[in-house]
Design brief:
heterodimer; A: about 150 residues; alpha+beta; 5 strands; about 25% helix; B: about 140 residues; two-stranded antiparallel sheet; two-stranded antiparallel ribbon
Chain lengths: ~150, ~140
Amino acid sequence: MTVLSVNSSTFTTDVIILLRDSLRDTLDDPIVRSGNDKFILTSYPSKPVKYPVITITDTGPRQEGKLGMGSQGTVLRLGIEIRVWARNVKERDTLFDAIYDHLRTNQLSGDDLTNANLHDFSLDNSVNVSEENIQSKVGEFTYLFLCV
Amino acid sequence: MVNVTGRTGQTVSINMLGVGEVIRRLRLSKKEIESSADLGVIKAGGFIEEEVKESIAGRRAEPKSVTTGQFANSIEFNKTGNAKGVVAPKLETYPNSNQTTQNIAVMMEKGTSRIQARRHFGNTKARNMNKVKEIIEKEIKLGVI
């Protein structure tokens, strides 16, 4: 399934798939995978996976306001969690930097994410979660979306 | 007193009475609003602290995260400035382990490769945002009247 822009009636799934495809086309997978193994997932893995992986999930939209009196249009702040699950700290940080760099440099008019109706990119916070064998970094991003 | 020259050349004097009193009352109101907002944030912080503890204990939508009770008991509200505060776990180390309550808080909030995220803090914030505003607004209204 390919999504070219975020639509008002399907914005929750659209934004996740759009970002997944955009990152999949940009980031280099550090390992060679067999057919069914995926590098970028749209939910937390429920089966064993080959690390590193990246998960893109939705943290919930927030309505910031309406587009004026008598309008049914709304301004939504779409929350997205992008989490890098890596084998070590260096790999985790390298992948996270690449994700941030791609999203940061795709926010002006003419770039693919803005054309897809996603505006005002923001990294709200990021947290490291260290486990014995897996190092992950959770970044919470938001985009402004005009739901009209 | 302000002197203004009229159209026919004569001077008109205008006396503004009570300016000092108005300024004094506005300054007093500002202080009242600030101290009421501060009190409101303390009350709201206490409320959120209890809500996070209830969430950890499994009495809200999230699964409970209690084994010894140390994590839930470590949650506290700390005032960080005028009308500012933070609800977070107090830094404590678990006995016979190098884990701290703050590490556990991050793992529970974000999940790990083996534990599903329980979002005790994020969900509490989302559930109670309006209630927090209500508590602070009520305190400000009470303080100013």
